[in-house]
Specification:
Blueprint (H helix, E strand, L loop, with lengths): L6 H20 L5 H13 L9 H11 L4 H12 L2 H13 L16 H7 L3 H47 L1
Helix pairs in contact: 1-4, 2-3, 2-4, 2-7, 3-4, 5-7
Length: about 170
């Protein structure tokens, strides 16, 4: 048990990662519309199987679509860790349109066999398409609102924390 990573350390790492991603998004010097478009496109790439390349593909796709590429990389990074949950959501949503040949009733049902059988199936693609449309609108709206409304405050807060830290040293 000594080699096990304590939960407190893991939670602290997750908190620092989330804070870093948030700071990266608010530091982007671009219009809120382009940042929101880039983040949403980067995040939505992860609704389809990219086999580990979702972060890179998201950034490039965001740039090609006229969004901010850095925001696309951040969006891809944030959502890549949610792939099992996104797969499950795609299957459940697609199941409303097409009947699945393999049952996926709970998160534990998502395994290698299920993914191999269903990744390119009609159920998965229908669910992914519906989820991309709905999630895209929601993610775009949230990021646009947060970036346009709170960017100045967040950057001022970060600047004050940096100044306070430099005075302590």
């Amino acid at each position: 048990m000594r080699n096990a990573i304590p939960i407190r350390t893991t939670l602290k790492k997750i908190r620092r990662w989330v804070r870093f991603q948030t700071i990266s998004l608010f530091r982007v010097r671009d219009g809120s519309e382009r940042v929101a478009r880039g983040f949403a496109i980067g995040a939505l790439i992860n609704f389809f199987p990219t086999f580990g390349f979702g972060i890179v593909v998201g950034g490039f796709a965001a740039g090609l679509a006229g969004g901010n590429a850095l925001a696309g990389f951040v969006g891809g990074t944030v959502f890549v860790v949610l792939w099992p949950a996104i797969f499950f959501l795609n299957m459940k949503t697609g199941g409303l349109v097409y009947h699945s040949p393999v049952r996926v009733d709970k998160m534990e049902d998502v395994d290698e066999r299920t993914i191999d059988a269903l990744v390119m199936g009609k159920t998965f693609l229908a669910g992914a398409t519906i989820n991309v449309i709905v999630a895209g609108a929601v993610i775009y709206g949230i990021v646009y609102f947060a970036h346009s409304r709170f960017r100045g405050r967040v950057l001022a807060w970060l600047h004050s924390k940096r100044r306070a830290a430099s005075k302590v040293r």
